[in-house]
Design brief:
Elements lengths: L4 E5 L2 E8 L2 E5 H5 L8 H5 L2 H14 L5 H10 L9 H8 L4 E4 L5 E5 H11 L1 H47 L7 H20 L3 H7 L13 H19 L4 H19 L3 H4 L3
Antiparallel strand pairs: 1-2, 2-3, 3-5, 4-5
Length: 271
């Protein structure tokens, strides 16, 4: 479960958690906007709510228990019918609602269901809830794109340092452009193998329909490491370390740095 985020809807702070990379919004927080006594169990006892939840689960949850759902649906709306979130989840294996304990305890719903719950607060509240959630997602995407583009630019700058080192140290004088291109590509694949475990040609053969190249599909962590090992390889080339020895060194550096980056909370915030 990732660190929580919050949005402000008409002056009310609402917590959002990630479960299995999906956004879940706090219904417990949302209840504070409702006038009078109103409980999540009141929403759950409504037949329209049960039908909506059942349809959503049938689309997104392959392990949904339809037999238990049918029993619950037949009782929904009756005066003596009561159902808690925990009971709903336990009986039907539902994934759209979650009851949590601890620091961020309460009832959370997948964003699709939370928006529907928002209508029970008020139509106005639902509209502002969707608006603020979309704003949060746009901000996250803007930060992600900025970071990705920054690291792509850094990688390209370092690649120039890398090719200059190749030109000064490896490429002899008076060779053709085709020969020079082969050497550059060969050294670029040293980085590819060190980081991705395969050459650009091997990756293309394995991913014939993918957009871009092996580096276009890289994660933020991989782009950071690529920028680092490009600079290191440039220095190794100037030190006249053999290509095979450089590959072994760069591969170990890439492994160590990726292990560090993938556990770095500051990097995880960007994903």
């Amino acid at each position: 479960m990732a660190k929580n985020k919050t949005i402000n809807v008409q002056g009310l702070e609402i917590t959002i958690l990630k479960f299995e990379n999906q956004d879940y919004i706090s219904l417990t927080n949302m209840l504070e906007a409702k006038d009078g006594d109103f409980f999540i169990s009141d929403w759950l006892r409504n037949r329209n709510t049960v039908e909506f939840l059942g349809i959503w689960e049938s689309i997104y949850n392959p392990n949904f228990n339809y037999g238990e759902f049918a029993i619950i649906k037949s009782q929904a709306g009756l005066n003596n019918y009561k159902l808690s979130v925990k009971e709903w989840v336990a009986k039907t294996n539902a994934i759209g609602l979650k009851a949590t304990a601890g620091r961020y305890g309460g009832t959370y719903a997948h964003k699709d269901l939370a928006f529907e719950f928002g209508m029970w607060i008020s139509a106005e509240f639902k509209i502002y809830l969707i608006k603020e959630f979309q704003r949060l997602k746009e901000d996250e995407n803007d930060r992600l794109n900025l970071t990705w583009n920054l690291n792509r630019t850094l990688s390209k700058i370092n690649y120039r340092i890398h090719t200059d080192a190749i030109k000064q140290t490896i490429i002899p004088e008076n060779i053709t452009k085709e020969q020079a291109h082969f050497i550059y590509a060969n050294e670029a694949d040293v980085l590819n193998v060190a980081l991705f475990g395969k050459t650009a040609k091997q990756w293309r053969a394995e991913n014939p329909t993918a957009d871009g190249n092996i580096r276009d599909q890289a994660t933020i962590e991989q782009l950071l490491v690529l920028a680092n090992i490009e600079s290191m390889n440039a220095e190794f080339i100037r030190m006249e370390i053999s290509q095979s020895d450089r590959l072994l060194k760069l591969n170990q550096i890439a492994i160590n740095q990726l292990q560090s980056l993938t556990t770095n909370p500051n990097i995880q915030k960007l994903n």
